[in-house]
């Protein structure tokens, strides 16, 4: 088998857990936390192109846009607007780092509730914004909200899911992100026709926030988190609830207590422990995976598809149609991932998805270079625009079954209990930091590099696929508390972990 793709003999510990109605419902409710992140991703792009919104808060941008007569790659190049949109990511970055302490001290569930409430407050302030300060305060609160939930939810899902189906359950988070994106696109379509539409679009964010907060209030915390906080009786109840009343949970509970005690005995600061040599492989993954996820260029494709469609004269609704088509393809492909991630494994999906995205990015660059000319000023014909959309759909499917859901799954499943929240925090912080830097630069990049931008992302996709082949061990089916075995058997990482666990 390939160098990184050794077969791991799954540690047999007898508590693999079966799928119960309770665990399915609990995980669906928890995964709905993805709604608020998705809603924000979907709503912000549309709102920042609504003229009444720009007139009220960013009049200079509106003026510049109406005067601009540039090539098709440059029409939306505005630093002020991107700074506003990405302020959320800076707030989210700070919150995700704080969240590791909160999830350890208050539990995963309470951190999700806190995230939902903060997001709800931000949505209300944004919907009623009378001036730019309110808009920014609201946006920062939204950032805190997604910082908390994006940190706590994937960990929650990985800890509650039966190990054998952990991948499938965890993909639910990305699925709800996708539902949030598509719903927000549809809402923007309806509201864009009204002068107060932006208010409604921003204010309606309270709906997904209310749904996920109420959901989070109803579920119990993960057995792992309850054990860590010394609530052993509640942990047993929570285990029985998710594993089924006819299941003997003693072995699993004993294993959780053992891991928790080992972590506590070390008494070390998690942000220091995580930098120890033995956790180098884990740390590298928690940084590389979210960093690479953003360098797939998913957000530039999502942004560019509607612009391209408008520029070829598909009519006013074209932007929405392009966004919805991509959104639906993305949703469908996440379900494919749900179905195969625990059967064929994470590496298989990363490699298939990566290859597919690479081919599509190169093909899009070639079609654009051939049809719009090197400077991007030549008109692109409808037939070619449709070809580009088809390529983008194949690309979106590739992302949907690989880097989309797996970037939340991997960091949440590779760490030992004592540093799991810290690892997930670092991962979310890297995701937000990379999104921030790319969104600040990609419009300028598109304007200057033109079709070459797509080749830039293709290069990164090639690199990340090779990285997965060489360095990412297969984690499917391995119980969280036995995860050390995948590093011990890895051709490269074993030198870091041997003799340590
Ligand atoms: C990514 C976002 C992206 C979204 C698309 C998430 O996993 O982190 O940057 O916009 O997927 O659905």
From TrEMBL:
Signal peptide: none annotated. It is a multi-pass membrane protein. Keywords: Membrane, Sugar transport, Symport, Transmembrane, Transmembrane helix, Transport. Residues 26-476 form the Major facilitator superfamily (MFS) profile domain. CDD domains: MFS_STP. It comes from the Eukaryota. The keyword Transmembrane helix applies. The chain crosses the membrane at residues 80-99, 111-130, 136-157, 169-190, 196-219, 283-307, 319-341, 348-371, 383-404, 425-442, 454-473. InterPro entries: MFS_dom, MFS_STP/MST-like_plant, MFS_sugar_transport-like, MFS_trans_sf, STP/PLT_plant, Sugar/inositol_transpt, Sugar_transporter_CS. It is found in: Membrane. The keyword Membrane applies. Belongs to the major facilitator superfamily. Sugar transporter (TC 2.A.1.1) family. This is Major facilitator superfamily (MFS) profile domain-containing protein.
